[in-house]
Structure of Dabb family protein:
Amino acid sequence: MDRTKPTVQQDSVLRHVVMFKFKETATQDDIRKVQEAFSALPSKIPQIASYEWGTNNSPEGLDKGFTHVFFLTFDSEADRGVYLPHPDHKAFGEILGPHLEDVLVLDYWSRKD
C-alpha cells in the first residue's frame, strides 16, 4: 500500500480523529478537565479548521473501552504539522497523560461538503 499522500488535496480536508480510553482511576472531574482542555485548543491553534467531540453511545459493544472521540479538521498537512508540536497541544498532553490508558489516532482525507 502506498502511504505517500500529497500535503493538500483540492476539494478535500484532512480529518484527524482521536479516541481516548481513560484509566479506571480517572474520575469524572479528571475527564471533564481533559474535555475542556481539548475543547480549548481550537481557540488557541488557528490551523484547526473545525472541531467536535462526543462520547460513545454505540449499542454494539465494540468500543474496546474507548469512550471519547475528538474530531479535528485541517485544510492541509502543513496545518496539521503546526498543530502536532504546538505548545498548547503539548500542554494539553500534560493534562491528559495521567488519566489516559490508551489512545487511537487516525487521519484521512475527505471531500469537502
